[in-house]
Structure formats: structure tokens, C-alpha cells
Write a structure and sequence with these properties.
Helices cover about 55% and strands about 15% of the residues. β15 and β16 form a beta hairpin. The longest helix is centred in the middle third of the chain and has 28 residues. By secondary structure, the protein is of the alpha+beta class. The protein folds into five domains: about 90 residues; about 110 residues, OB fold (Dihydrolipoamide Acetyltransferase, E2P), CATH 2.40.50; about 270 residues, no CATH class; about 35 residues, no CATH class; about 140 residues, no CATH class. The strands form four sheets. A five-stranded mixed β-barrel has the order 1-2-3-5-4. Strands 11-10-9-15-16 form a five-stranded antiparallel β-sheet. It has a three-stranded parallel β-sheet with strand order 12-13-14. The protein is built from 26 helices and 16 strands.
């Protein structure tokens, strides 16, 4: 048999399917472009080495080539090449952002005078007030070597009256460079600090003084306004109620007690303190419905004018004011962008909440702050919003039963929203914070409506009425709502089994989980969504099989931790508490440092491990080690090392950072924080190469 000419020139079946798949995405391509952009950004942060000029040129060439192919094949499979081009753009944008925020990082231990302007106030994990300074001046240090920003912890009985946003202060402090991960593959504070232009962190135990008159300009004026608002709430709403009001309006958490933050975290209500999409949405929604409802009372306007558009335009200035009032953190910027996209969709006559709107917001956020992709705030907010849209859009296509109508429909919607948002954000929260709040749905059902109906609206109404002296009633009701939320947090946190600890997985789990969730959100077909579900299942399997290090060594050799059948044994019962707490949390262990130190030392280790955290303890450890193979972990480098001993001291740890050891029978695998970080601008290895 002979083929006809048409059959000879027919395109392959695979090509036909690819063309059909691309054509089927018409009108639904924005979510996939957001996925491609996020893939490029994530790929950049996963690189072991910072791309050099030749790699950048190659990126540019490939980007142009794939862009040309996307244009040439736009009628068939061009969208595939467009996604590749956008992914390359994501990597390029992330590197450009890395260079823009680059600043000096302190390369030695500094003690001396510190002067700067306060741009942020918060509290450390130990409860000490912290100030972040810009326009920094350090004693006998050239401006080109001075960090752009410095963060100080005010310890002891330091007076904090001068510590107000926008004030220029001076003190004497201990400073050092931001520390690396507490364990290989752990949270990279150096990378986090890099994108905050935070070149040094430290503490002071001496008084903080005003360095002169507060500087002028828009920035200091906004900071002073924020301080005035926080002070007004604290004066009119005493105690922790006023502190919560200040936190959710200005972002100032400096006055929150440890008990309050602990209860909110245990009950999965900590997100109410973070100025996020929830708060921005509540404010924007309140203004939108207030304006639209008021205009609806005037028939001549409601029947002849686009009141929906007018309400959206009226809500935008309030969203902008809230952005400025809250300090403009990355999380608040993300919430503002999402609100602005939603309002813009209303003005343009589009659906306000759709996957396309979420994709536009994600693209803008990633182009503006690509590093936010690596943070839990970005991941949890977009996961929750995307999941809610998927579920409620799906339900809207079904015929609503009676239970979804009227007031019962509101109750069911609230319950469903809490379940869906909790299911979407739960794995991400557990991955980042190593804990699962089992009664989070209950707590959110009881607290979030109060936040939306009373607290947020009335705080802003009260704020606007303060100049008129009419703020007492709205702030009293808002304070009652805050007390209700705190009471819910306390009661839920006290329930038996309220919190479970989970171990930290290997680093590959997060990107695989995120890819699976993104595919499910962007896909239109059941087959594509099935691929996303498979990716999430793979992430869950890898998480379940993730090993924890048998030995952990801190980057200053002051603490070691050995894995035992009873949990991790720690070499010290006090001191280095931050590192100890992170290790135990990553193990999924709820024990305190003192309890972990009281555990029996493991008798069957493949190697002998000695800890000499001080110079006085070194001779006994060296004598113990002599003549027997083993490791000696020390805080100071000894002059003589007996044969058979291996010493890990400051010189070694300066190169490696924290160390993790894994035992596989008689084999020992060592992993270092520096190797996992790679040679990146923010890493220890990068500074060593300079």
C-alpha cells in the first residue's frame, strides 16, 4: 500500500496533542505564567553557585531564543516556549533583586558606638525588644563598609522610652554578622537578612539615647504617625488588648507578651497578628460595602450610576493608607497588591476573586520581591486564597441545596472556608514551624468572624473619630472583640493535644509540594490536576522518609546534639537556647533544653564524641581522646592534637558553619551548612572567597 500525499505530510500525533493542549489553555494562561515565573525564581534560589557573567549572557540568549519561538509558533505550541521564557525571566529578576539589595555585611565582632534611625520595632523569641536601624553610623568605620541596616536587641533593664519609630538613637552595642543556619539545610537567616539589607545584628545593655532631632521627610513622618497611632490605642485600650490593636493596625508587636503569642500560635490564630491579606481584605471589604450600601440608599444614584465601581475606587485610598500605616512590610505589600488587583478587577467589570486575579497578584509580587517566594507568608496566603477559589467556584456551578441558603449558608460557608484554608496552609505551616494545631478550625471559626465584624472595622472607625473625641464606643466594642479572640486562643491552646510536633523534612519536600499545589490551582483538566496530586503525594512520601541528623554541632561549637531512642541528647542544659530550641523543634520534639540534656548519653555511637565548650575543659577531653579514634569538639583551637583525635574548632567551623553527621552502619556522612548554602552573595562561603 502507498500512503497518500496528505498522510505523508500529516503532523505526528504527539504534535497534534501538544497543539490541542495549548489551544485549550486560551483564556486560562495567566495562572501557568505565574507558575513558570515562580519556577524560575525558585530555580535561582536552588542554585549552588551564583551565576556569573557568562551564565547571565547564556540566560539572555536562551530567553531571546525561546521568546522568538513563542512568537513564531504562537498559533500552535508557542505557549510552551513562552513559559520557558518567563521562567528564565524569573531567574533573571531574582538575581537583579539580589544585586539591588546588596550591602556591606559586618565581617568581625564589633563593640562600640552605634547610631541610626529606627525603622522597625519588634520582639525577639526571648521577649526582648528589638529595634532595626537604617542610616547607620559605627565608630571608626568607613561609610562604604557600614551595613545599611542593623538590628539590636535591648536586653536587661535598658530604658526604651527613646525607642520610637522614626527617632534617631545612639547606644553602645555588640554587633556581628547575621548567623548561618543552625543546622545544614535549616532556615537560612543569612539569606533572609540579605534581602532586608540587614548587615549586622547584636545587642546592647546600656541606655538608648536620642541622637538629635528626628529627621524630616516622608519616611520619618509616616513612622511617627504609626507610633502615634500605636500609642493612642495603648492609651485608650490598656493591657494586652491595646497591644493587639497596635499590632494589627501598625505592625508594632513590641508590647505583646510571650503568653499571648504562645497561645495564638498554639490555637492557629497567630495569623491574626500578621498584617496580611485577611486584614487588608477585611478593611477593603468594609469600606467597599459601606460606600456601596450608603449609595444604595439613594435611588437616583443607585439606579443610574455604577456604584460598584465607585465603591471600589473609594476603597483603594484606604488600602493605600493601611499599607503606609502598617510600615509597608513585604507581607503587607503582598496583601496590598492582592487587594489592588481585586479592586481593579471590579473597576474593569471582571470577577474580583478568580484564579486569574490571584495569578496577576502573584506575578506582580514575584517581580517586585522575588525572595518572598521562599517565605511562609507568600506560600500560605496564595495557597489559602487559591484553594478557596477552587472550592467555591466549583460549588457555584452546582445547584445549591437548602442548607447553603440564608443564614445557614453563611454558617456552612464559614465552616467550609476554615476547613479549606486550614487544609491548604496546614502542610506549609507544619513544614516551616514543625507543629500542627489540631483545633485551628474551631479557633478560626470562633475568632475570625469577630475580627471581621467588630475588631477591624471598629478600630478604624475609632481611629478616625479620635480627633472628634467620639472614639470611646467603637474602641470599647473593638476591645471587647479582642478580648474574645484572646479568650478563644487561651481556651483552645489549653485543650488536651492542642498541638503536635512534626519533624522537619529534607529540603526537596517544599518545592515538590509547592509545585503540586501550583499545578492543581493552574490546571483545567482532571489529568493535569492528577499530576499535581501525584507531586503532593511524592512530597508526603519524602517527608515521611526524611532522616534526621544523628549528630548536630553548632557553628560556634558551644552545643552538640546526639540522636537517641528517647530523643535528642544535648550537651548543655542552659545557654545557646535558641539553637537548642530549633534543633528540638526540627526533631518534632516538645522537650525543653533542660529535659533533653538530662537524657542518657547514647552508648552505641560509631565514634566517640567529646565536648569541650571552654578552654578549661580542653585538657581533660584531649587526654580522654588520646590513643583512641574519635572526634573532639572544642570552643577554642588547641595547639597540640594527639594522634587519633580529630578536632572541630573555630577554624573549622568558620569554613563549614554548623555540621550534621549521619550514621549508616559503620559509615559516617558529614553535611555542612556552607556546602548546602553554596557560594551565594549572602553565604559564609561567598565572604570567605573575597
Amino acid at each position: 500500500m502507498h500512503r497518500t500525499d496528505a498522510a505523508l505530510h500529516a503532523p505526528p500525533a504527539l504534535w497534534v496533542r501538544a497543539v490541542e493542549a495549548c489551544q485549550a489553555l486560551r483564556g486560562h494562561r495567566l495562572p501557568w505564567l505565574a507558575v513558570a515565573l515562580g519556577t524560575g525564581v525558585g530555580g535561582y534560589f536552588a542554585l549552588p553557585v551564583e551565576p556569573g557573567p557568562m551564565v547571565q549572557l547564556a540566560w539572555a540568549w536562551f530567553g531571546l531564543m525561546f521568546g522568538w519561538l513563542a512568537w513564531r509558533l504562537r498559533a500552535s505550541v508557542g505557549f510552551v516556549f513562552l513559559m520557558i521564557c518567563v521562567a528564565i525571566l524569573g531567574g533573571a529578576v531574582a538575581q537583579i533583586r539580589t544585586q539591588i539589595v546588596a550591602g556591606p555585611v559586618l565581617d568581625f565582632r564589633y563593640y562600640g558606638a552605634v547610631e541610626g534611625r529606627i525603622v522597625a520595632l519588634d520582639r525577639s523569641s526571648s521577649g526582648a525588644m528589638r529595634v532595626t536601624l537604617d542610616r547607620v553610623r559605627l565608630d571608626r568605620m568607613a561609610p562604604d563598609r557600614t551595613p545599611r541596616r542593623v538590628r539590636l536587641s535591648l536586653q536587661g533593664e535598658v530604658a526604651t522610652d527613646a525607642a520610637v519609630p522614626g527617632a534617631r538613637i545612639m547606644t553602645t552595642a555588640h554587633l556581628l554578622a547575621p548567623s548561618g543556619p543552625t543546622e545544614p539545610g535549616g532556615f537560612d537567616f543569612q539569606r533572609h537578612a540579605w534581602y532586608l539589607s540587614l548587615g549586622a545584628v547584636g545587642y546592647t545593655r546600656v541606655p538608648v539615647l536620642r541622637a538629635g532631632p528626628d529627621p524630616g521627610g516622608l519616611g520619618p513622618a509616616i513612622a511617627q504617625a504609626r507610633g502615634a497611632v500605636a500609642s493612642a490605642f495603648r492609651t485608650r485600650m490598656p493591657g494586652q488588648v491595646g497591644e493587639v490593636a497596635a499590632a494589627i493596625t501598625t505592625g508594632d508587636r513590641s508590647g505583646l507578651s510571650t503568653d499571648v503569642t504562645t497561645a495564638l500560635r498554639a490555637s492557629n490564630l497567630a495569623h491574626l497578628l500578621a498584617i496580611s491579606g485577611l486584614h487588608m481584605g477585611l478593611l477593603v471589604g468594609f469600606v467597599f460595602w459601606l460606600v456601596r450600601g450608603g449609595l444604595a440608599l439613594i435611588p437616583s444614584i443607585a439606579l443610574h450610576h455604577p456604584t460598584r465601581i465607585w465603591a471600589a475606587l473609594a476603597a483603594f485610598p484606604f488600602a493605600t493608607a493601611y499599607l503606609l500605616l502598617s510600615g509597608g512590610s513585604i507581607a503587607t505589600q503582598r496583601a496590598f497588591i492582592m487587594a489592588a488587583v481585586m479592586l481593579g478587577a471590579i473597576v474593569l467589570g471582571r470577577r474580583a476573586l478568580s484564579m486569574r486575579s490571584i495569578a496577576i497578584a502573584a506575578i506582580i509580587v514575584l517581580l517586585w520581591h522575588p525572595e518572598s517566594l521562599m517565605g511562609p507568608g507568600f506560600q500560605m496566603s496564595f495557597a489559602a486564597t487559591g484553594a478557596l477559589i477552587l472550592v467555591f467556584v466549583g460549588l457555584s456551578r452546582l445547584e445549591r441545596p437548602n442548607i447553603l441558603r440564608g443564614w445557614r449558608g453563611g454558617v456552612v460557608s464559614l465552616l467550609l472556608s476554615s476547613v479549606v484554608a486550614g487544609a491548604a496552609t496546614g502542610p506549609i505551616a507544619a513544614l516551616h514551624f514543625n507543629r500542627i494545631g489540631h483545633y485551628g478550625v474551631l479557633a478560626n471559626m470562633l475568632a475570625v468572624p469577630m475580627m471581621g465584624m467588630a475588631v477591624m472595622p471598629l478600630l478604624f472607625v475609632g481611629l478616625m473619630l479620635i480627633p472628634l473625641g467620639l472614639d470611646a464606643m467603637p474602641l470599647w466594642v473593638a476591645g471587647w472583640g479582642i478580648r474574645w479572640i484572646l479568650e478563644v486562643a487561651d481556651r483552645v491552646a489549653d485543650l488536651p493535644g492542642a498541638v503536635s510536633m512534626v519533624p522537619a523534612p529534607i529540603w526537596q519536600v517544599l518545592p515538590i509540594l509547592g509545585a503540586g499545589m501550583a499545578v492543581v490551582a493552574a490546571a483545567r483538566s482532571h489529568m493535569a490536576r492528577g499530576v499535581g496530586v501525584v507531586l503532593m503525594a511524592v512530597a508526603a512520601s519524602l517527608w515521611a522518609q526524611s532522616p534526621r541528623p544523628d549528630v548536630l554541632i553548632s557553628d560556634d561549637a558551644r552545643l552538640i546534639g546526639l540522636r537517641t531512642d528517647d530523643g535528642r541528647w544535648l550537651s548543655r542544659e542552659s545557654g545557646v537556647s535558641f539553637v537548642a530550641g530549633i534543633w528540638l523543634e526540627n526533631d518534632g520534639d516538645a522537650a525543653t533544653q533542660e529535659q533533653a540534656a538530662a537524657r542518657p548519653y547514647p552508648p552505641d555511637l560509631p565514634i566517640r564524641i567529646h565536648h569541650a565548650p571552654t578552654k578549661t575543659a580542653l585538657p581533660a577531653a584531649v587526654q580522654d581522646c588520646a590513643g583512641a579514634p574519635g572526634w573532639l569538639v572544642v570552643a577554642v583551637q588547641p595547639e597540640v592534637v594527639p594522634k587519633g583525635c580529630r578536632v572541630i574548632g573555630p577554624a573549622t567551623l568558620e569554613r563549614t558553619g554548623s555540621i550534621a553527621l549521619y550514621f549508616e552502619g559503620e559509615d559516617i556522612t558529614m553535611q555542612t551548612a556552607t556546602r548546602v548554602q553554596g557560594v551565594r552573595p549572602w553565604s559564609r562561603a561567598s565572604r570567605q572567597d573575597q
